[in-house]
Amino acid sequence: MSAISYYEQVTAAADVIRGQSSAKPEIAVILGSGLGDFASSLSEAVSIPYARIPHWPAASVAGHDGRLVIGNVAGRSIAALAGRAHYYEGYDLRTVTFATRVLGVLGVRTLILTNAAGGVNARFKPGSLMVIDDHVNLMGSNPLIGPNDDRFGSRFPDMTAVYSQRLRGIADETARRQGFSLEHGVYAAWHGPSYETPAEIRFLRTAGADAVGMSTVPEAIVARHMGIDVLGISCITNFAAGVLPQPLNHEEVLETARNVRGRFIGLLEGIIGRL
Ligand code: HPA
After folding, report:
1. pTM
2. DSSP H or E run through 252
3. What is the pLDDT of residues 167-194, one digit of tens each?
4. Of the four listed, 18, 149, 180, 204, which is most buried by Cβ atoms within 10 Å?
């Protein structure tokens, strides 16, 4: 069996998806922990399990299922990913960002990245939603490491404005109309899977972070490499380590994400309706 290139793997996956749905979504949403329900709210939906898409990594974390759903929201054709691959699962960052590459090849021009995150900024209450204004990549790696494929993008892509100002404004305006306001801040990507220590959280605060999580940044980098506009929204599910005198646990993260999902899904629908 001859090995095929990463680019060929991406186009092979895109071909299989095109064979399942004739829709041409220009908007995609990657759903974080506890948000998978959004995918079920799409109308005229085609649901494709990741296992049916060649080269696509499985999502194995509790709270993440594994399917790509193409359907309509607010009259727009969108692709929603319920479940994502994480670096801490042992995938390299090229594999973590495989789905983002496929979305780009399918013609997606706007990518909404969502996640659950710990609040490093002690003002942020669990259950609040934070628009990502910028990020700090502390994963110790970068998804663009390795030979550059010019068909995707350039060797040294600019990261001055990863998170589109226009999209951030639309998010704020949508929340305002829905009667609440969004936090804003810097998301630090931590590779995990252990949560941070209180000393690491103090370090992140000094580094300018407002929230910390274990995803999103690799996808955002790859999306920008492909010229895709990015919006990132974090659900602050817990105070970061050391803010409160109690340990962190994944159940708490999932529970807060579940409690907020109605508001989060309403916000996503509202944003998509204004794109
Ligand atoms: N740290 C890292 N990732 C997370 C957290 C956290 O506190 N909460 C949700 N995801």
Report:
1. 0.96
2. helix 250-273
3. 999 999 999 999 999 999 999 999 999 9
4. 204
